Amino acid sequence: MASVHGPRTPVSAIRRTVLHPVRLLPVTFLLGSLIGTALLMIPAAHNGKGSADIMAASFTSVSAVTVTGLVNVDTATYWTTFGHVIILLLAQIGGFGIVTLATILGVFVGGRLGLRSRMAAQVDLHLTNLGDVVPLLKRIALVMLAFELVLAAILGWRFRTEYDESWGDALWNGLFYAVMGFNNAGFTLHTDSLVGFAGDAWLILTISVAVFVGAVGFPVLAELFRRWRHPSRWTIHTRLTVWGSLLLFVVGAVTFGLAEWNNSATIGTMSTFDKVVTSIEGGVMPRSGGFASVDYGQATQETTLIGSIMMFIGGGSASTAGGIKITTFLLLAYVILAEVRGDPEVAIGSRKIGSQTLRQALTIALLAVMLVATSTLALLALGDVSTDEALFECSSAFGTAGLSMGVTGDLPAASQLILMFLMFVGRVGTVAAASALALRGRPRRFHLPEERPIIG
User: Fold this and answer.
1) Cα(88)–Cα(101) distance, rounded to whole angstroms?
2) d(Cα 152, Cα 174) in Å, to the nearest integer?
3) Which ranges of 314-429 would DSSP assign to H, the alpha helix?
4) Residue 65 and residue 401: Cα distance in Å, rounded?
5) Which of 124, 282, 318, 411 has its CA 20 to 30 A from that of 202?
């Protein structure tokens, strides 16, 4: 019997497969990476004769589209101004795309799970119907652009007045760092990242604020804009993201300061004020920022280990950050707390967390651990790197943080391909995996007899 929707052709089948909400996100970013590679292969984008190296172009493109900032060549000298413009546009599109597509994906997932789940997703995203998606996208674009312009003005003024740059160079640098900061992409126009600006509170703290806000996520920012005076009325997602972000920031800043305070290779010779400023930066950037005013290759093992953990956790959901996300990490912490207390249910405040949500969080976390661990072993086998360096690079790629201990460019092509895969998965894989798990949810018509294996 023929389908009422007409015959199924191979083209229509492929179209339905590609345009499926779960697959649309990675397909879009893959296409963006390929286009970015082609643009960076244009001779005008590369300093020197001919086109850029294919590995340099593809690695940079993936890093920009996934707003990571990890590089295998010196961005400041390898690429021309035209190349820098391409990188900026790729990062802006990547940052804008991940926020909007993740938000839309949440609405699609709600629709597939039924009316109640659809309404829950719409309430959480401050929508009343799917017709509000376009206005929401406009608000996201306006907020991002307005925030970036304000940051660009502050940074441009600083570059002009403090570093005596021409107004043209100062404004361009300000715009570049504002876009990279808010989108959590660590690309810089200086060979040593922000090392030359270490201790400059105006510059470092402004970029740190941009990174922190960008890593929170637009749904949370939208709710804070409306209800910032009433924390008791925040949704569970906003509570977890806000308080979790502040907690990780404090832990990161304090541990960075304690570990590096007397390290002469990083901040040991700085003044107390400069040490505090750099420690604040050290508490923000490993979350997903990628900027660094110290050489992480000279940092202590405590700093690199804490940094790897922070990068693995990442930022807020539907934000420009990568990693497993703060909500996933904190949900698992609440599971442990409930088990230790002997509580039959996992509750946050006055709300119960469903078992399906908890299983999704556990699945994503364990898959991420397996992925980062396997990739770390692969880097150790393929290149002459230490365990600390391999773990740090893999955590940075998966968390789309962009921090490096200075070994990325020296890795063999196979290792760089692994890092490219990690950047891609870290940006879109967790969102797609979470949505796929949610869409697979189905009620059971029977219950199996229970048995408890020995634990521990």
Assistant:
1) 20
2) 4
3) 326-341, 355-382, 387-398, 413-424
4) 13
5) 318
Q: Please tell me the predicted confidence (pLDDT) of residue 441.
A: 57
Distances in whole angstroms, Cα of residue 374 to Cα of each of 257, 339, 390: 31, 29, 11
Report how far residue 288's alpha carbon sits from residue 297's, in angstroms, rounded to the nearest whole number. Answer: 18
In which element (H, E) is residue 160 found? helix 133-163
Long-range contacts (CB closer than 8 Å, 24 or more residues apart) made by 275-281: 277/199, 277/200, 277/201, 277/204, 277/205, 278/198, 278/199, 278/204, 279/253, 279/254, 280/204, 280/205, 280/208, 280/253, 281/194, 281/204, 281/205, 281/208
Determine contact, residues 101/93, Cβ cutoff 8 Å. Answer: no
> What are the beta bridge partners of residue 348?
351
Cα dihedral 207, 208, 209, 212 in deg (nearest 10): 130
Structure tokens at 252: 């990161």
Q: What is the DSSP string of 257-312?
A: HHHHTT-TTTTTTS-HHHHHHHHHHHHHGGGTT---SS-GGGS-HHHHHHHHHHHH
DSSP 112-152: HT-HHHHHHHHHHTT-SSGGGHHHHHHHHHHHHHHHHHHHH
C-alpha span between 48 and 36 (Å, rounded): 19
- Per-residue pLDDT tens digits for 3-40: 445 555 655 555 555 555 556 667 778 888 999 999 99
Determine contact, residues 314/325, Cβ cutoff 8 Å.
yes
pLDDT digits over 387-437, tens only? 999 999 999 999 999 999 989 999 999 999 999 999 988 887 766 665 555
pTM of the model: 0.85
Q: How far apart are CA 318 and CA 215, in angstroms?
A: 9
**Mean of the per-residue pLDDT values for the chain?**
83
d(Cα 305, Cα 387) in Å, to the nearest integer? 11
How many angstroms separate the CA atoms of 289 and 399, rounded? 10
- Determine the longest span between alpha carbons in the chain, in angstroms: 80
Q: H or E element: which one contains 58?
A: helix 54-65
Cα–Cα distance for residue pair 404/290, rounded to 1 Å: 8
3-state secondary structure of 72: coil
φ/ψ bin of 71: left (φ > 0), alpha (ψ from -120 to 50), beta (otherwise):
beta
- Show the tokens assigned to 368: 């991420």
Residue 100: phi and psi, rounded to 5, are -70, -45
Residue 162 CA neighbour count, 13 Å, CB half: 14
